[in-house]
Amino acid sequence: MTIEKDIYQDHKNYIDNGYKDRSEYLKHLSEYYVIPIDSVCAIAEVLGSDEDFDALICELEDFEFLFGLNCTGGYENAIYK
Predict the structure, then answer these.
(1) Which of 2, 16, 37, 52 has its CA 20 to 30 A from that of 8?
(2) Contact of 75 with 31, CB cutoff 8 Å
(3) DSSP summary character for residue 20
(4) What are phi and psi of 69, to 5 degrees?
């Protein structure tokens, strides 16, 4: 297997969903849910990359709820209570 193919396999889920890599995906989630990138990365690290498109989303939605944010629809619509 070539290095390029190894890199593609490591990033396949992200590439298939329109992101360059995991970092870009996590940055997008941070902006979308209006949650600091450090917090998104910490939650993602605990869950592992296998949960990036499932449990991570649920956790970020819970985070949003627990901290009183209403940011459905993206960061442009965030309302801090």
Answers:
(1) 37
(2) yes
(3) S
(4) -95, 145
Q: How many domains does the chain have?
A: 1
pLDDT per position in the chain (81 positions), as tens?
A: 565 655 566 688 999 999 999 999 999 999 999 899 999 999 999 999 999 999 999 999 998 777 765 555 444 444 443
CB atoms inside a 10 Å sphere around CB 8: 12
- C-alpha neighbours within 13 Å on the C-beta side of residue 21: 4
Quick one: tokens of 57? 């989303």
Query: Residue 28: which domain range?
Result: 3-80
Residue matched to tokens 């442009």: 76
Give which of 62, 74, 81, 3 is closest to 34, Cα–Cα: 74
